[in-house]
Amino acid sequence: SENELFCVGCGAQLQSQDSKLAGFVPASRLQQTQETDLYCQRCFRLRHYNEVAEVPLDNAAFQDLLTSIGHQDALVVYVMDIFNFSGSVIANLRKFIQHNPVLVVGNKIDLIPSSYHVNKLQNWLQNQVKQIGLKPVATQLVSAKKLAGIDELMTKIENLRHGLDVYVVGSTNVGKSTLINAILQANSDLKDLITTSNYPGTTLNEIRIPLAGGGDLVDTPGIIHAGQIANLLTPQELKYVAPQTQLHPRIFQLNAQQTLFLAGLGRLDFVEGEAGSFVAYVDNHLYIHRTKLSNADQFYAAHRSDLLTPPQKQTDFPDLVAHDITTTVKSDIVFSGLGWVTVPKQVRLKAYLPAGIKLDVRPALI
Ligand code: GDP
């Protein structure tokens, strides 16, 4: 019956009642087919047309699944986006997974300019992880997209899992699906498995992929992180917040009383301090506008639906809210999900983000 069918792409239970919900397949297709490898319409479109459909995920189910990990012995692979670290944090992960060892994967290293040393990035990741109170058994930097670090990751997983199941967890947009595909690609046996047979999910929407030597690799649904700018944008606008290629730093020599707009998604006022360089690490196609602080409000009002897009004209897009910042050292002002602007030491700033989106200030990464 329909109740027992799950999408092999995302693990959602297949249904034909509501095309806006996860797991939708037209009724005609569900009834006719003899196939066991069924994709929901969303995954089908994603695979064939590279189209992203907006489907709400169920956070309660995800938390149940996390809790169930705590009731068994397993290795937890925690995927984080180094470009959007705070947006990748799953609150209280340890409470859910209990005693189980965690391997932290820092994904999307390909975005970081190549002049930056991997060793430094490794230290930075370890520090960030320590600051959120997690003591991982190992960390590994990867690019799921450019297939960097995947073999090293697999070796670490093999050495740490002792034949047990491996749960891959992460927030949405950290690149978890891309990573699972990269792992499958790197291991042709697994690739054959996933393309030729059906992986029954459970009501918790997990996808199990058998590993050589016993145990499964378990893909879990991503948890939606409240406060992610991605949640506010349409699929067309999302490409600006999940950059696909190496970032080219954009350098602005600014005097006090100047303002930078990150399209209509963020704004940084340089209120007071010595002139210096402000370096933006955001998607290469995101429009950045420099203006006088005294003009900024007026400029925003006049151009928020043409020059300063995204967001496109959306009546429900939250207002930009100001945060006061004073730096002591050279710092990154992190517009969560969008990127960051590196600013000089000892300056006074005002950073504006859409209401509800988190602002972070950290010592400069680069
Ligand atoms: P999930 O929601 O965690 O499963 O994330 P996805 O695998 O769907 O990826 C989210 C976005 O990040 C997509 O736009 C991917 O193309 C992009 N992405 C995933 N991995 C990488 C990576 O290693 N580098 C870069 N630059 N982008 C990535």
TrEMBL record:
<dbReference type="Pfam" id="PF21516">
    <property type="entry name" value="YqeH-like_C"/>
</dbReference>
<protein>
    <submittedName>
        <fullName>Ribosome biogenesis GTPase YqeH</fullName>
    </submittedName>
</protein>
<dbReference type="InterPro" id="IPR006073">
    <property type="entry name" value="GTP-bd"/>
</dbReference>
<dbReference type="InterPro" id="IPR048422">
    <property type="entry name" value="NOA1/YqeH-like_C"/>
</dbReference>
<dbReference type="InterPro" id="IPR027417">
    <property type="entry name" value="P-loop_NTPase"/>
</dbReference>
<dbReference type="InterPro" id="IPR019988">
    <property type="entry name" value="GTP-bd_ribosome_bgen_YqeH"/>
</dbReference>
<feature type="domain" description="CP-type G">
    <location>
        <begin position="62"/>
        <end position="226"/>
    </location>
</feature>
<dbReference type="InterPro" id="IPR052807">
    <property type="entry name" value="Mito_transl_resp_regulator"/>
</dbReference>
<dbReference type="InterPro" id="IPR030378">
    <property type="entry name" value="G_CP_dom"/>
</dbReference>
<dbReference type="Pfam" id="PF01926">
    <property type="entry name" value="MMR_HSR1"/>
</dbReference>
